[in-house]
Amino acid sequence: MNFLVFPPELNSVLMFSGPGSGPLLQAAAAWDGLAAELNTAASSFSSVTSGLAGEAWQGPASRAMAAAATPYSGWLAAAAARASGAAGQARAVVGAFESALAATVHPVAVAVNREELVQLVVSNLFGQNAPAIAAAESQYEEMWAQDVGAMVGYHAGAAEAAAALAPFEQALQNLPAVIGQLSPPGNIGAANMGDGNKGSVNYGNGNTGNANMGNGNIGNLNFGNGNQGPSSSQPAILNFGSGNIGSFNLGGGNIGNSNLGSGNHGSANIGNGNFGSTNLGGGNSGTANLGSGNTGSNNMGSGNTGATNYGFGNIGNNNVGSGNTGNSNVGMGNLGNGNIGAGNRGNFDIGFGNTGNNDFGIGLTGDNQIGINFSGLNGGTGNIGLFNSGNNNVGFFNSGNGNWGIGNSGNFNTGFANSGSTNTGLWNSGSLDTGFWNSAGTDVGFGNSGVGDVGFWNGGHDDFGIGNSGALSMGAFNAGGGDVGFANAGAGNVGWGNSGAHNTGFGNAGATNTGFWNSGDVNTGGGNSGKTNTGFGSAIDTGAANSGFGNTGTGNSGFNNNGNANSGFANIGSNDEGYGNVGQHDTGFLNKSNGNTGFFNIGTNDVGISNAGNLNIGYGNTGPAGNAGFWNSGSDNSGVGNTGNNNSGFDNTGTHSSGANNTGNQQSGFRQ
Questions:
Q1: What's the rounded Cα separation, in Å, for the pair 52 and 73?
Q2: Where do the PPE domain residues begin and end (predicted)?
Q3: Looking at CB atoms within 10 Å, which of 112, 188, 413, 465 has the fewest?
């Protein structure tokens, strides 16, 4: 966050809308309290040891005890001094904040200045307000400089206070060296702070590896929970986040390396839910895209299917603009190739609504023509509007057929710049989409490049949520498949931050665990790096058939499971994760059939909540199969409440329609 370049609207709001100095004052009081407690402990410890050595206990053993105890008494006193110093520096930061706040321009004053400028510009028809506009801008520049000066002073004061803090570690240098070799019970390794670790210098529980700060990691130098590498020979290294499979990720639920974001399946992505590498944005399937929901590579924009497009919703390659079907077009809604303009159906046209080739003009129907077709300005037939080269359109610049809107090169679309067919929305290059920037088919939402997604920025297919690059997941930022929850890179998990598979809980890098931070397998509890443990912090393998209580099958973790290889609670089927699942391979809660992900599904292979059909994605779909969205009772619909088949939009009863409330077939628009 660089306050040096932030305008006063932002710097002022940040200063006046935050929690203020209250939390720092509370922290200072807490540090003072800790210093007092440590001083009391140091005095008491010194008094007791000196009393023993001076009166009741004499001889060499007494002198050895006193010599061993003295450094610890000194450490308590030094720690008390460090705590008191921290309290003083916290109060110094409070002083710096209060001074900066007093010097910061009030947000209301900034808003008044901007509103005054807008009014002056709007009424400046003849230039009479030029001096007043200049004065307002000069005042605004002074506000900017004043805010930056206040923030510079605040930063300098806070940095000075932080630099004056004495590290607590310095006080440990005089303690006996053996203290650094100790680990709590349940660890296999040295210098661990926690339980159930296999390795050394871990700060946390259930890690397999070294120098992890967190829990349930398989690897080294991870900061977070449940991270692991792609294989035993490639452990995870230096992840900042949870549930990653790979190394050098900053975020959660990534499969790959060096991602900045969550739920990516690939490497070097900046964003969420990308399936591919080096993407900047969300929900892309491909490589080196700048934007969201692209299927292809090197696109700059969103919702493109193809490569090297600059714009939105293009099918093809090397287009500049939106909604083009074809290659090398500049403009909008062109169906052919090499066009400059909008709504051209032919090739190498310059202009609008031309159906021929090599035309220069508007609405021309032949080849190699120059001019304007004044008989309606449409190159197609049955159109209502202007510059349409397709047929039976309502709107402008449509080169497809049966569209309602602007710049559609596909067919039967309702909206703007759709190059796919039967879409309801904007810039969709897929088909049967409801939303915008969708490059696959049967999506509801925006920025989806997978098929059958409901939500935003999903690069995987048949997902219900946000930023999922895996398949058949419900939640957010899952790169694994069949997950219910958040930031899971493993498959078939219920919870969050799991890089292992088939877990119920959070932060598990192992498999089939019920609990949290387990790097081993089939554990019930937390922080176990061993296998088949019931409890917490175990690094051993017990060899038991199940972990937990009340399980009747084998390979179960959790409680009261009747099948095999389940994690969770009261599952009757096998290979289930969660609670109360009756079918096989269910993930979630109370699913009644097989292969479901989510809650209360009675169909098969559904993702979401309360779906009754098969392979339905979303909520409350009762149709036979293939719906994405909400309350659809037909088949292969995207949207809400469609009773027909192959529709996008809302409450359509026919087939292959887009829009809303259409009762016929192949319709676009509203209520026909």
A1: 15
A2: 2-165
A3: 112
